[in-house]
Amino acid sequence: MKVVITGATGFVGAHLVRYFSEMGFEVIALGRSLKPPKNLLKFASYKSFDFEDEINTEKIEADVCIHAAALTDTRCSFNKMMAINVRGTEKLLSIVNCKQFIYISSSSVYQSGFDQTEAMANAIDKAHLSNYGKSKLLTEQLLTNNFEKGLTSFQTLVIFRPRAIYGKGDRTLLPKLLRLVKNNRLFWPGKKYVPSTMTHIDNLCYACGLSIDRLKTDCHVFNLGDNQVYNLFEVVKSLNENIKRKKLKSVMLPAGFLLPVLKFIYGNNSRYFELMQLNAPLTLDLSYLRRVLNYDTERTFSASEIGDWYHDTKVENTNPLNWPWI
What we know:
Elements: E1 2-5, H1 11-22, E2 26-31, E3 45-48, E4 60-61, E5 64-67, H2 78-95, E6 96-97, E7 100-104, E8 113-116, H3 131-148, E9 156-162, E10 165-166, H4 173-178, E11 181-182, E12 185-188, E13 195-197, E14 199-200, H5 201-214, E15 218-224, E16 229-231, H6 232-244, E17 249-252, H7 255-266, H8 270-279, E18 282-284, H9 287-293, H10 303-312
Parallel strand pairs: 1-2, 1-5, 2-3, 4-6, 5-7, 7-9, 8-18, 9-15, 10-14, 12-17
Antiparallel strand pairs: 11-12, 13-16
Helix pairs in contact: 1-5, 2-3, 6-10, 7-8
């Protein structure tokens, strides 16, 4: 079986490439880089694909397309997010013919709150979302509208909404969390107890595999996460202590004061959005995922797993953009 994976040079795409290659799939990896990491070519063939490039690209035939590429930088403008995340997806649809399309969306399509169900994203006011959250929700709507109108090549559309994807090789979330430590102190701009769903990258790959095996028709939207609810402060503290290999003193910053100030400066984006992620309880209802896909996994957060990878790969003084492809 042949699978196309976008965002293959990034964290999520890299794990998907390895996972499906090791499962025996023929993998076609798409990425923006003209030259892929050498290690990637051990697992897949590679095609350069720029979501902003207007040059026509040759058609790609596959059984499955997993669309993991996205612009996630919350400092970017809404127009930039739209150009890459929404219109880029339109371009992808024009070149890939497949039977099943899997879109890696985000829990950012929800407002903060406990135990979000899939239907809740359809009832929100997009004005309360970040530019990133809006672009992900609009991409979902683009895909579902095209699918319902019969404008796509695929018979099955699967949308996953993971929360806080983490794991070895993470170049997005991990660097931000490491910057919270200065002089052996963890400066925590939030509450000590914030319940949250998190998603191990292996669980995301596992869910994609389940959807390919079990879903043959229709549109399906799933929340996605580990089978456990975490306290963000405890996770971040244990992670940083494992990486620093020492106990850290916690310095609690007044989030109640910082949030209104950053909201005034940035609206729902940039630093305000990042601070909200640490302060807003958000757990995902996984009952539909368990019922339809029989999703059952014991993979959960381990500070030592990420800490060991960090030290073994010697990335401490390296720009995260240059961290090795996993």
